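ok so for the tutorial part 2 we go from a plain amino acid sequence to predicted structure tokens. step 1 is just haveing the sequence, like this:
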Amino acid sequence: MAMRILLFGYGVASYLVFFATFLYAIGFIGNFGVPRTLDGIPGEPLAKAMAINVGLLSLFAVQHSVMARKWFKDWWTRIVPPPVERSTYVLFSSVALILLFWQWQPLGGQIWSVENPAAVLALRVLFAFGWGLVLVSTFLINHFDLFGLRQVWLHLMGRPYTALRFGTPGPYRLVRHPLYVGWFFAFWMTPTMTLSHLLFAVMTTAYILVAIRFEESDLIRDHGEAYEEYRRSVPMLIPSSRRSAAARASAPASVPASARTS
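step 2 — the prediction. this is what the tokens look like for a chain of 262 residues:
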């Protein structure tokens, strides 16, 4: 029982680190309320600063994607107890982001700047919408399973882990990856686009588009024809009224297993 309590505490601590990192990321990308942000006064030569930033983003991308693959999990759970595999993934992802926040190098430069107050407000609202959509999407796919809390809770209670059922609630009937759509709004909706912000937005967008391919391959492996039919019926990121209507008519409304990998 002591080990179960210890693993549960580890899972909760990992989640709290994630949640603090998530809140910091809002200020980091939005350039408000935190000590270090995407933009600021450059402190390194442009080439060196860009190389550091690309390295930080690449480190996060590799960690976030490799640790989500089945072959890695099969090996990793020989080292870490299976109930905290997801919590460890969440913790390592948070640490990679914390390193990025700490070592990020502002690049200077300005790509665009919106001055109209109404347009600025609209962009801020869309930025907030993106973060809200990210959070809502995690709850629709079972927030607590996605971030490892369900696994450690079931282990604490002495109950076996059960995989989530496939289904398409809410925005999952409009696009297959509403969580990623939220990230795009969060990354791109800014009244002032600097070179730093553009590098961040371009690289994270490219990573997401690549990660979707890996994620959907895993989902097809896990759910077979059910996910294949979903993929044929529902667009990836941009809603289509004709295809979404077909999805609403045919898809179940249970908890989706999408976004369990990245």
